[in-house]
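Morning, I've got a small favour to ask if you have a moment. I owe you a coffee for this, so here goes:
>
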Amino acid sequence: MQLPSALSWLVDAAGDAPGAGRLLAELGTRLAADGLPLAGGALTLAVPHPLIARRTWLWRAESEEVIEALGFVGGLPATAAADSSGEVGRRWLAELAGGVVQEDGIGAKPDGPLLGWIGPRPFAPEEADALREAARFAAAPLAAIVARATLTAALEAYLGKRSAARVLSGPLRRDVGETISAALLFADLRGFTEMSERHPPAEVIAALDAWFDRIAGAVHAFGGEVLKFIGDGVLAIFPVTDGEPRAACDAALRAVTAARAGMAHLDKARAAQGFAPLPFGVALHVGEIHWGNIGAADRLDFTAIGSAVNLVSRLEGLCRPLEKPVLVSGALAARTTMPLIPLGMHELRGIATPCAVFTVPD
């Protein structure tokens, strides 16, 4: 059975599909147009992600709807999580029409893409052969999509979503970047050097990971993005999106509130295990930053630089002498609706002009 529409599309255009879900839907539609009785399809791919082992896309022919199911690592071995995710597609297909599932592995790897179809009746031998042929032709475009997804996932894991998108959309040159307005958050653990000297590396890393989970999780929950993990410190931004910085400033303050609550719970859990608390300081500021590439000719970094970044890092250094866990610059205080307590004007190391400093109510 010939499938000119589906096969020619797989050869000529499928590799340009914006994602695996759209490839599945377009392929299913074309296979149905070529005469194959399809009620739905499922495509499962392994993905490189810190939390997700596999993704499964489910396509229903009647509505042309595509939904996605995730197989999380969640403490399980990656293979166990991947198998669990693949089973989602099998069960869904079997329940959709009650027919016999036609499922094909794509590629040589045992954990490679898995493509499945279901019809309103069991497939005839020539129909099953045609679906297997389509799966074979789908290998190349799926490899292209997986390669793009791998690159995107790796950049997002190391740079954050916004920064990864900028890196992918621009040339790899030092002079690429832009000036943006953003609320800035700089946070730093207290006593980390002493902890590193007195405790084994595994314990130090576990503490760092727990700290980063709380602060980065809070930043992401309120629309910010972590730009850098700097030793035991974190630099994050909340970009101003509409020309009015109030929303970004409020989001940064809410993220700090959430991070402090998370760290309070963590310190209780650590105390129950006999570990010391993890005190930290946080500074907030708002201003313009240069957001883009810097570095050597052949080794680049994507980061934020500028006087606003310098100020927020210096402001965080006042947390200990002022005995306050959170400090807010006068610039951000003037652009937020949240109540703050003034602490007066203070000199900041390396900053020419004294800074009005505020803190949050206890």
Summary: The chain has two domains: 4-159, 172-359.
